[in-house]
Structures are given as C-alpha cells and as structure tokens.
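Summary for the funding panel

The consortium committed to producing paired sequence-structure records for every protein in the target list. Below we show the first two records in order, beginning with the earlier of the two.
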Amino acid sequence: MHNLSEQIKIIIAEDFPLLLEDLKETLEKVEDMMVVGGALTGKEVIRKAETIDHDLILMDIEMENINDGIDAAEEILGKNPNDRIIFLTAHETQKMILSAMGTGAIDYIVKGTEEPLIIQHIRDAYNGETVLAEKIQSIVLKEYKRLRQTEESLLFFINHLSTLTKSEKEIIGLLLENKKVKEIAAARYVEVVTIKSQINGLLKKLGATRTKEIIKNIKELNLSHLFIS
C-alpha cells in the first residue's frame, strides 16, 4: 500500500483554468497527494511529462481539439510505456472510451464522479490496483471479446483458404468482381443451383454466413490477387 509519508506526484491536463485550479486545490488537500504541474493543452502536458518528475497524469480528452488528450497520451506512452495516465473527462461514449483506453491508459473517470471516488481511483492507480468503473469495464471487456472473436475468425479463415478447390477459387474471383449468382453461373456454363451449392460449400469451409464476409476478409487481408486472374 502507499506510504502516507510520501506524496503521489500528479500532473493535471485540463483546458479550463478554473477547473484546473479547482482540481488542484481538491487534490492538494489530500495528505498523500501533490500536484506538480498543470497543463492547458496536449502539447503542454507532453512537455511537462518529459520534464517534471511525476507518478501519474490526470488527462482531459478535449482541449485544443476533441482528441487532444488522446493524442497526448499516445505520444507520452509511446516514449514512456510505464507512465500512468488516468483520463478524467466529460466524454462517455463507447467510441471515446475505447479510443482513450486504447492508448494504454490505466483508468477512465467521467467528470462529475464524487471527489472521494476520484481520489480512490488515483490511489488505486498508483498502487497498481486499478478497478475500472463498471460501465467502463463493461465496454472495454466487450470490445476485447469482439476483437478476440474477430482474430479467431480470421485465423480460421486463413487456415482454411488452402482447402479451396480450383472451382471455388474461381467463384471467389468472380464474387470479387461483384458478379451476381446468375452471372457466375453464366460465366461458368452451369446451372444457378450448382453455383448456389458451391457457394454454400464455400461458406461452410471458411466459417462465414454470407459471401460478403468472405469478400471483406479477403480484401482486408490483401489477398484479392490470389483469386483474380
């Protein structure tokens, strides 16, 4: 646990001077905390993170521009991955939370959170015991699960590309050219029902439910050249 004889050294990035001063006064009333720097812009907090000895940074997101804090966090953590950044912001959309936490920040607090809880978050972050707020945690975990499922799906897709027959590869090539089932059947001189059957086989092999998924994956993996002659 944190030794009260030592103070947690904090840099605050907040573009409203009155809010910056108010937060500074709040934290400096706490026995084990000390504000060692304040910044009104992303560039300023980057500079202070490099020149001022600190334990963590309380980072607003919207300063000079809507993503100023996120850009600053990326640069700071890019240079020093061990730096601790807590976002303290009015933004609470899923997109903003994921963008912010994607920088490598350790916590995300929404403005309006009660002061004792903010102080506890700071102590937890300092002690390496960060517990995200329930809403933030839920969003982050759902995104992690989605990314994991996407990764597993792509690995399955890649591993099964080698099982495709020559005919199936040719059908994918025609799908990449935006051909419809009737057009593919005509191009291959077979019945529509035959193409539909072959496409169903393709879907099963590649773990997809629609041909659009197959085409999307191929384009994202830059593999189109393997199917278009």
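The next record, for a separate protein in the list, is shown here:
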Amino acid sequence: MALHVGFLAAEAVPYAKVGGLADVAGALPRELERHDLHVTLVVPGYRSIDRVRWGLRRVPGTGGSTVAVGDRREPWFLETAELPNSRVRVLFICGRYFDRDGIYNEPRTGGEFTDQLERWVFFCRAALAALADQDTRLDILHLNDHHTTLAAPYLSEYARHPRLGDVATFFSIHNLGYQGLFRSPAAPVLALPPAYLEPMGAFEFWGAINLMKGGLVLADLLGTVSPTYADEIQSSEEFGHGLEGVLKSRRRDLVGILNGIDTDVWNPATDLHLPAHYDAGDPGGKEICKRALLERLGLPYDPRVPVFASIGRLAGQKGVDLILDALPAMLQAGIQFVILGSGQPEYEAKLQDFVRRAPRQVAATFAFDNGLAHLIEAGADFFLMPSRYEPCGLNQMYSLRYGTVPVVRRTGGLADTVRDWEPATGQGNGFTFGAFGRDPFLAAVQRALVAYRDPAAMRRLRANGMSSDFSWAGPALQYRAAYEAALGRRRARAHPGGARV
C-alpha cells in the first residue's frame, strides 16, 4: 500500500511564492506521486491566490469549524484544488489570518506581521483538523521550515485518532537563517504543555520561543536541502545560527537531499517565455534570447560583450553587497549586468545609482517577473550567486540547464552542483571561489571572462552544464527512503522490544 504523506508548507508554486520553499512544495509532491506515494499538500489560503485560474473550490461543511489560538476559538474553512499536471490534492486553510495582502510581511511597511505566531498556530491546528477529516489514514507528516513545526506537538492530541494516530514526522530545513523567534509573552498563544517552553524545552531558546528548534527536537527524522548544507549547519554558528548544538545532537537523524528543479517548467527546448528554443545539441537559439533580453531591458546588443545576471532576493545572504563592491571593476572590464529582484532598500538604491551612471551596461528590475526570469536565464552568459550561505539554491540549476554558466561561492547546494572549470581537461560547469570577499569573487569573474573569449571553452562549459540531471526523480526516491526510515523509528519507539501489533 502506498504511503500517505501530508505535506505542510507556508507557500507553494503556483499559488504563492516568496522563496525557494514554494518551488519545492509545488514540485516535490507531484514527483512523489509518480513514485507511488499519495500526497496531500496543505497550504494557507492567501487572499492573493487566483482562485478562478487554479480552480479552487470550497469544501462543503467546513464553514462552521474552529480551532484554538491561545484562549480563543478561530473560525476557518477549507478550499481545495488539484496541483496542476498531477493527482495531488491541495487543501487551502482559509480564515482571517490569511485574508489580507502579503504572505509574511505587511506590504505597506515591509515589516513582518505582528500576529505572525498566531497565524502559524492557526495554520498548524487547522491543517491537522483538515487531514483528520480525509478519507485515508496518514503515515507521514512532512513539515517544512518553522511555519509548520507546531504541528508536531499538536499531533499528540490525535494519538488515538483512526487517521492521525502513530504518524511519523519528517522536518525539512530550507533555510536555518529564518527560525521563527518570538519573545516569551507570546507563549500563551501556543497552548502547549509547560515542558515545551521551560528551559531546555523543545521550543525554548535563551528565554524566547524558537519554532525552528521545536522542529529539530521533535521530528522523527530531519532533512535539509543539500548534503553540504547538512554538514555546514552542524559545523559553526555562522551556518547553524545558534542551533548547531541541537543539530549535532541529532546528526544521526539528519539527511541532506539535494533539491531538484521542475524540468517541465524550466526547459529551454519548450519554454513558452522564450523567443527561440534550444538544447544541448542545438544551442543556437540562446544567442537570439540574449538579443531579446537586452532589447527588452534597453541595453545595446554586442555578441562580443558578456552578460552577467542575478535573480533573487536583494539580501545580505545572497551576497548582493559583494556584487555591488565588485561591480565597478566588472563594468570597467566591459561587461553588461542585469538583475531582477527586490529586497533591502539600500541595495535597490545603490543599483539604481549604477543604472544612472552606466545606462548602457546595467539594467535593474525591482519586482517579481516570472517571464523575465526565464528570459534572463536563457539570455545571460553568466549567472552570479556569491552567497554567504546557500542551503541549496535553484537558480544555479536553472542556469546550468539553460547553458548560462554560474559563478558561485562554494557553499551549501552551490558546492554540490557547480564544479569548477578546468581548462586543461575540459571538466567543470562553472566558476567557484571559497572565502567570502571581493577579491576572490573578482578572481572567479576574471576566469569567466577568459573563458568567454575562447568560443571552444564556452561551448564545452555550456554543454557540461546542460547535460546535468537536476530533475526531482532522484531526490524523490531519497525522500521515499527517508519517509520509510522515519516511520520505522516512530514504530520502534511506539513498540519497543517487539513488532508492531
């Protein structure tokens, strides 16, 4: 019998996206279904979801339901749809906490919602109630990042439930830098037994509530999104963000599984966002895409000039400050630079200044534009990801698939996917550097420029990248094995010394 997985996430493509978590939550459940697992995806029913486009429909009989948030009862109802191109059922938790503009932050101020903790209490309790009302018994509860960890202790309230009893929990760490920290006055909202919040308790962290820590302590098995990141987060406070001790104590329960990408959506041979299609065997369309990209952004086209690109959050984690420090020297070397993203206002201001000073070399778009993101991946020659840390990263994999050569720092998933170019052997698919600093980064950029001036080297680099397999097929098999291991551990604890009865 196929395992039934309840997959909880705060965002999922195509319904709501802020970061890479949404890409994983929108693609992995579909691939798991192809490997004989039954998956129910549970996400918040945000106001911004296009209900007509994605076929959401209200589930009858859920309008009168309530869940506890602290000492109050909060009403909720359920909407449902099928994840596109799959049999995955999606449950949308709806109520006043998600009937507002914005996903995590207040759009007008950019600050985090002040009732954030209440929102995740509400989501976790309602998600379990929704799963309890499904037709099939749940085997695995897959929790993703701190927004979902409260489902682990709340699950104990269903210990004797016919569909939620004896469920194993698997907790995925997508980014340890966002932990869900709340000060102690918020504790009553959780309505948890005191032991969870006392010193050394699962959710206690130096006098605060730490939702991420709770997941690390309580889940049957832990996972993160690349093998290298799994090692890094145990090694130092730089990567562990204060939780490295907890992670070391559970090192035997932690697996690193590299994310995949949706190879149906990200495919230069079929991508509807592109003016020309191409593949590893016939890459000629890439130059047409480069010309189209520059025309769209108002930059002059010159095949002799390399285009460097960046897509993503304008944040310190992504090494945007490193790009800004190195950009004058890069422009002096004669490159063009395009960037798509939004984030910290000071970074946007500095980029706007570069656009004013070098309008024929720099273009910046401060928004989320999916079509432009695809065109950039196809039209750029090099992709910059000089991250301080990078749990997995997806854009470097998109870039490799599109024949755009990545220039990355050797950290996390970047180290697991980008192999440094060796001109003598023709091995490698990108350019890497180690120490986080302007000079090491510029040295990698300089090596990229040398390769650009050698057409044979660029053809080999692009072919190496485009031949890589970053589909979800392999990771899905690893997740299936991890789920079975988590279920085995849960059953061993529930029935020590003997077989399950």
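Regarding this second record: The chain has a mean pLDDT of 94. The chain has two domains: 4-260+473-494, 285-466.
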